[in-house]
Fold:
Amino acid sequence: MSSSNDREQRLDQLLTAYKAACPDPEAGANFMPMMWQRIEARRSPVLQWVTMSRRALAGALAVCLVLGVVMATALTNSQFYQSTYIEVLDDDEVPEDLAAMHPVSMESSESGGDRR
Structure:
């Protein structure tokens, strides 16, 4: 029994020494802001650059995936890619009668005379 009692005393001494070495932080109004200041002070610019580049890479990947899906659906549903050149020309509605387009004459009008 003395060995277990001795162990308990040594454990109590160890815990007392630990408590004296690591005091409890006082939780005041500035506790969290001060904690974040210490955390931010330990961050290196290289780590911040790596984090920002990873976020940019993830964003670029997301944009590429979205554009890929949009392009894939647009190409499969497009009549342009499913028809031949002759079919497109046949479907094009070009007026056969040029008079309907009212062409403009480039000649000078009779009443305007000679302008210089």
Observations:
- The helical segments are 2-21, 31-42, 45-77, 85-91.
- The first helix runs from residue 2 to 21.
- Residues 71 and 101 are 37 Å apart (CA to CA).
